Amino acid sequence: MGEEVDRVEFTRADRTAFRNQVHRNLDAFARMLRESRFEAERPMTGIEIELNLVDEKCDPAFKNAEVLSAIEDDAFQTELGRFNIEINVPPGQIDGTGLEKMEQSIRASLNAADAKASRTGSSMVTIGILPTLMTEHISREAISANPRYTLLNDQVFQARGEDVQIAIDGIERLQVTADSIVPEAACTSTQFHLQVTPEAFPRYWNAAQAISGVQLAIGANSPFLFGKELMRETRIALFEQAADTRTHELKTQGVRPRVWFGERWITSIFDLFEENSRYYPALLPVTSDEDPIVVLDRGDTPALSELRLHNGTIYRWNRPVYDVVRDKPHLRVENRVLPAGPTVVDTMANGAFYFGLVRTLADDERPIWSQMSFSAAEENFHEAARQGIDAEVFWPGVGTARATELVLRRLLPMASRGLDSWGVDAEVRDRLLGIIEQRCLTNRNGASWQADEFHRLYTKGSHGRRDALRGMLSRYRDHMHANTPVHEWPVD
User: 25-46 pLDDT, tens per residue?
Assistant: First the structure.
């Protein structure tokens, strides 16, 4: 959610004041765009990785407070579930060996943190959904102690007026009911941030939307939920349903969900923030004392805290971000498509593919979004969530094709050119994109390995279902710590 809140009850007056302040923020933001008041130095990137905590049996460990106390590192923060934490990687440059340095930094931080977490009887796993998480683990007591999560839970259920219904059809079928938003905590993701200028933002956001399906197909890592084998990236459907504040009647009326792919290509970042204010009521209507217009008039930078807080409760798969660092405002595309894991090197390969491909598409004189309907991009996204690395997607000039073939024949060369445009060293480029290439050639990503290993233990072996999931996750954790790319993981 990002912004801290300390209120526990909201009145009608609070909601009116918040709406008015969001509109005031929008006016200030529009003025800032007109006056070019944004940081425009070399592009920076940052990464957030959400982590699961497990005990010695590979079951969820509800110890995030104890683990964070043991780690004592501000880069690690609490998350919604008591079995989650998050690492925020400091922003860095893409060019040169920047991605390699980031990889080394992440590995060092995670290794050090995991060693300290072991003192609490816990270890960390980077995975899209924890396979050993079961329905008995998702009670309200699993919400982290931070008051903002309890408040968010209460506001979501006040808006819904009824329990959360999770219904997912995949290889197996799941239908469960939850009385809290804890199922949302099961969705652990990797978020890539890319700082861009206001002028470039719509091109990069559109490009990110266009490739989201391919990203998901190649990087899927969430085939299990509550003991069932469902979609290859079950996290997408789960998050869409777990964070939905609409009643059944509002869904029928076509009211937009808070977890949203979107509905159109954009021409300005303002389009997205304006949609937020037009379509979505406030979940956390906390207002500040800042008048952003007065702040601009005196030559300073407004925080736009209401705009940012509201934006943080609307979960676009590619989200716009306004932020202020050292009194300088900047804009970022936050790519939220991918799950966590399987390894740090896989994560960085996913990042290199994303950064390179969006750069080439954003620079193209005939942009991909002028050749492709928005609905086709959304279809690709959900098809990739269902089928993972076996997905077939649509691409202009190609038609419908296997995602792996599309990547090998067309998109990898584009990603390579994009990394060249960023100034990435050739050796770093080739090593990271080579991992994506091998995933496509071997037809193996995190989701396919999890499924194959589970069936080796359960369908072909003598393990019960729950023990097979534990055994699979134990081997997954060993490979994860070895930082061996997932396409090299054996199933035997």
Answer: 999 999 999 998 887 666 679 9
What stretches of 99-152 adopt beta strand conformation (E)?
A: 123-125
Cβ–Cβ < 8 Å for 221, 339: yes
The Cα–Cα gap between 246 and 253 comes to: 10
Identity of the amino acid at 401: A
Q: How many CB atoms lie within 10 A of CB 326?
A: 6
When computed from its CA atoms, the radius of gyration of the chain, rounded to whole angstroms, is 22
Task: Say how far apart CA 308 and CA 291 lie, in whole Å.
Answer: 15
265-290: pLDDT as tens digits:
999 999 999 999 999 999 899 999 99
Q: Specify the pTM.
A: 0.95
Q: Which residues pair with 196 in a beta bridge?
A: 331
Q: Which residues contact 481 (CB under 8 A, 6 or more apart)?
A: 111, 114
Query: Using an 8 Å Cβ cutoff, are 319 and 276 in contact?
Result: no
- Distance (Å, rounded) from C-alpha 226 to C-alpha 133? 6
Phi, psi of 490 (to 5 degrees): -80, 160
**Contact of 130 with 186, CB cutoff 8 Å:** yes
Token readout for 22 is 């969001």
CA–CA gap between residue 94 and residue 195 (Å, rounded): 11
- Strand pairing class (315-316; 259-260): parallel
Closest to 475 in 3D by CA, of 453, 460, 455: 453
Q: Which of 109, 5, 3 is nearest to 49 (CA)?
A: 109
